[in-house]
């Protein structure tokens, strides 16, 4: 049966470059990898009051994460860190205490921005968070995509040979990383 990958995109923008990057990765992956874009745009802002009775959207998120064999975080950088929408989703799925849905699931962090530092600082912050949440995260290659000139189309096709080869290298390492943890 296919290996199930939960994709979390850290942007809610309709035309998100990071969602395009996620689709590009999907297209470069082998047939036995099944990707699911996890919905985070309807989550309430986390409150510890939820722990007594978790809201339905929050429970759905936890189930989506728990059903996955691996995680792929594709995020922009907001003000040199992780966008609030993504941090909120992570907080929601990590709770109630003792029920961290991410625990032990292998993952990777990639991202794209229009700035020349290309999400490096946001990704480093996110790696810190994931280390605490017991997500073993692929170390190399790092993927900082400087988005310009419609580099990746809406359907995930890549306009540059260099970028396609580079991303294929990431996908090959990512696939091997996820397989190492597969039961
Ligand atoms: C940005 N952007 C940005 N870019 C960057 O490289 N470093 C940063 O710290 C920030 N900070 C930031 C804050 C906020 C609030 C916004 C709205 C944007 C620009 C960002 O890279 C650009 O908007 C991307 O297009 C966002 O990714 P998506 O939505 O296209 O996936």
From TrEMBL:
GO MF, one annotated term: oxidoreductase activity
Species this protein is from: Rhodanobacter ginsengisoli
EC number annotated for this UniProt entry: 1.-.-.-
Domain NADPH-dependent FMN reductase-like: 4-148
SUPFAM superfamilies membership: Flavoproteins
Pfam families per UniProt: FMN_red (PF03358)
Requisite cofactors: FMN
This protein's UniProt keywords: Flavoprotein, FMN, Oxidoreductase
The name this protein goes by in its record: NADPH-dependent FMN reductase
Matching InterPro entries: Flavoprotein-like_sf, FMN_Rdtase-like_dom, NAD(P)H-dep_reductase
EC main group: oxidoreductase
